[in-house]
Design goal:
- The structure is a single chain.
- It contains twelve helices and eleven strands.
- By secondary structure, the protein is an alpha/beta fold.
- Helix 4 packs across helix 5 and helix 10 runs parallel beside helix 12.
- The relative contact order is 0.13.
- Bound molecules: pyridoxal-5'-phosphate.
- Pyridoxal-5'-phosphate binds next to helix 4.
Length: about 350
C-alpha cells in the first residue's frame, strides 16, 4: 500500500526537467522488428573492431537481469555508467534548482554528495553527529526547511561503517516531504535489510547501489538507482543517451549471477578478526563498529601511522583532516594474507 503524501514524487522534479523533451536516439526510435541491414545510425558497416554498433541506450537486458537479482521490477531500475556517482549527480540535476534549493546529510559521509552539490550550485547542509558518530532521523529532519529537496542517507556510512537502522530510514521517508536518497554501496556486507524493502510504500525513496564493492567490479563503473517507475523514467531521460558502453553491458550480463556469498562471509569474518587485532595494539585508540568492508580506526598519531604504512607498501585512507574523523584512518578489509601483513606491520611501529 502506498502511503498517502502531501505531494506526488513528480512534484519534486525541477520544472525544466518535468518539461524536458528528451533526445531520442536512432535506437530509441526503433521499436523492434526483424532487421538485417542497419542504416539508421551512421555507424561503420565494417564489423572488424567488434565495436561498430551503438549499444542499447535503454539497457533492456541489463534492467531485466538487475531487476531479477534485486527482486525489483525492471521499470524501477536506472543504471549509471560512471558508477553510482552518476546517479548522485542526476539526483541534483533532477530535483534541485541551482542557487536556490538545499540538501541535507549527516557528517561525516561520502564526499561526492558535497562535491556534486557544489558543482550544481546547491546548498549542502551537514548535520553534526554524536560523539560516537551516530545520528537519528530526527537530527536530519530538524535540518530541513521548505527549500530542502533531498535528504542523503549513506547506510552503511562511508567512512564510519555505521548503518542507520531501517526503522530510522523509514521515519525520514514518512516524515520528509521531499526525496530521500539512500546510498547502499555497502549493503551486501550489512546485517540490516536493504531500504529496497521500503520502496513500494514510499514513492519519495531512491535507493542507490553499485557493482563496485562486494560485487567486485569497480573497474566496470556500473551503479544503480531504484525508484518508482516515474522517477526511474526521468533518470533515463536526463542521462547521456549511450551512458553504458557495449562491452561493459556484455561483461556485466555474463557475470551478474556470480555468487558472492563466500567472499562476503570471509570479508565479514576478517573484519572482525582485524577489529580484535587492531584493538589490541598500543597505537590504536578506538575502532568504530562497522557494517561494511572497512574499519574506521582512531590512532594516537594518524599521520605517522599513515606514512609508516606507505613506507611498508601498504596504502590506507587518511581521514585525519576530515571533520569528525580527526586521528582516523579508514582501512579496507583485504584478503587474510593482506590483513595479517597490515597487523604485523603495525606491531613493528615504534
Ligand atoms: C564507493 C562508493 C560509491 C561509489 O561507487 P561507484 O559505483 O564506484 O561510483 C557510492 N557511495 C559510497 C558511499 C561509496 O563508498
Amino acid at each position: 500500500m502506498m502511503i498517502s503524501r502531501k505531494h506526488d514524487p513528480l512534484d519534486y522534479v525541477r520544472p525544466n526537467i518535468r518539461a524536458l523533451k528528451p533526445y531520442s536516439t536512432a535506437r530509441d526510435e526503433f521499436k523492434g522488428g526483424d532487421i538485417s541491414i542497419w542504416l539508421d545510425a551512421n555507424e561503420s558497416p565494417y564489423p572488424d573492431t567488434g565495436l561498430n554498433r551503438y549499444p542499447d541506450p535503454r539497457h533492456r537486458r541489463l534492467k531485466q537481469a538487475i531487476g531479477r537479482l534485486k527482486g525489483v521490477a525492471p521499470d524501477c531500475v536506472f543504471i549509471g555508467g560512471a558508477g553510482s556517482d552518476e546517479a548522485i549527480d542526476l539526483v541534483y540535476r533532477i530535483f534541485c534548482v541551482p542557487g536556490r534549493d538545499n540538501v541535507v546529510a549527516a557528517a561525516p559521509t561520502y564526499g561526492v554528495y558535497a562535491v556534486a552539490a557544489d558543482i550544481n550550485d546547491v546548498e549542502y547542509r551537514e548535520v553534526a553527529p554524536d560523539t560516537d558518530l551516530t545520528y537519528t532521523a530526527a537530527d536530519l529532519l530538524a535540518a530541513t526547511d521548505s527549500l530542502t529537496k533531498v535528504i542523503w542517507i549513506c547506510s552503511p556510512d562511508n567512512p564510519t561503517g555505521i548503518s542507520l537502522p531501517l526503522s530510522e530510514i523509514e521515519i525520514v521517508a514518512r516524515e520528509f516531504d521531499g526525496i530521500v536518497a539512500v546510498d547502499e554501496a555497502y549493503i551486501d556486507f550489512s546485517t540490516q535489510p536493504s531500504a529496497l524493502t521500503l520502496l513500494a510504500r514510499y514513492p519519495n525513496l531512491i535507493v542507490l547501489q553499485t557493482f563496485s564493492k562486494a560485487r567486485g567490479m569497480a573497474s566496470l563503473r556500473i551503479g544503480m538507482a531504484f525508484a518508482t517507475p516515474s522517477i526511474a523514467a526521468i533518470f533515463a531521460n536526463v542521462k547521456y543517451p549511450y551512458n553504458i558502453n557495449g562491452p561493459t553491458q556484455e561483461r556485466l550480463l555474463a557475470m551478474i549471477d556470480r555468487d558472492i556469498t563466500a567472499q562476503v562471509a570471509e570479508i565479514r569474518e576478517q573484519r572482525e578478526w582485524l577489529r580484535g587485532s587492531l584493538d589490541a595494539l598500543s597505537c590504536v585508540e578506538k575502532v568504530y563498529p562497522s557494517d561494511a568492508n572497512f574499519l574506521l580506526v582512531k590512532f594516537d598519531d594518524a599521520d605517522k601511522v599513515y606514512d609508516y604504512l606507505v613506507s611498508q607498501g601498504i596504502l590506507v585512507r587518511n581521514r585525519n583532516r576530515v571533520a569528525h574523523c580527526r586521528g582516523c584512518l579508514r582501512i579496507t578489509v583485504g584478503t587474510p594474507d593482506e590483513n595479517h601483513a597490515l597487523v604485523n606491520a603495525l606491531k613493528r611501529i615504534l
